[in-house]
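Let us practice reading a record.
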Amino acid sequence: MTGDLPAFARGLCDDAAVFPPGLAPLADAVPAHRRHRSAPYAALVGPLVLPATALDQLHALLTGDPLDLSITAPNGPAQAARAVAAAADLPVDVRAVEVAVPTGMTATDLLHGLERIDVPVFVEVPRDDRRPAIIAALGESGHRAKFRTGGVHANLYPAPDELAAAILAAVRAGVPFKATAGLHHPVRNTDPETGFHQHGFLNLLLATDAAMHGADAADAAAVLADRDAASVAARVAALGDARAAFARARFLSFGTCSITDPVTDLAALGLLSASLLKEDA
């Protein structure tokens, strides 16, 4: 018997095992995802995130219940539409597509390109001067945003003030969002191997909560920059289920290449039961 997860953790982690730095082979990622979805911590686990190019290899790996997928389309809306059409011939449930915005594409052209897609869409908002117009367009159209929070190079990690501004813009426009890459730990830290300053996914949750309760960009950036793990964990615990669920209505999830790492880290902070990692829990 595992009991219910607290509201802040439900559906928090999308399974991005095939992406860097994990780079799990697809033949390993699919059965591992099914194990995660039947584990004691299953309520924390979102869909398996796969690139559109992986769909051709997927059919031979699928048995049993339909596989929940989120499909990434780095080449833009046209690739996303083709991927959704291709997935219709597979035993999968496409929960979302995650669409990048090609260089030079305007917000108007983006929305036009998304018209053929009939599943929820996350748009990876570019880190350039198109960002305000695209977030505004997402708010008007009902689509969702995706913010890149890290990667394999230091310049892929937005500074706290940049990420805070993006969160505030999404909150004010009524746009739900997810985050991708670089969120390897709950609390902001510096990776000892790369020296990259990594955002914490709990910091991101708290910054979203702050933005939804009137914080300005400077306040939200300060929350994102907080490295005091005990303080951050205490603030998350103090949210309670109702306030946490309110924040999670905007910050929907983040992609992680290791589902068990966030569970382990949250248990170490006292926010989840360690029994969730036991096979017989």
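A brief commentary: The chain has nine helices and ten strands.
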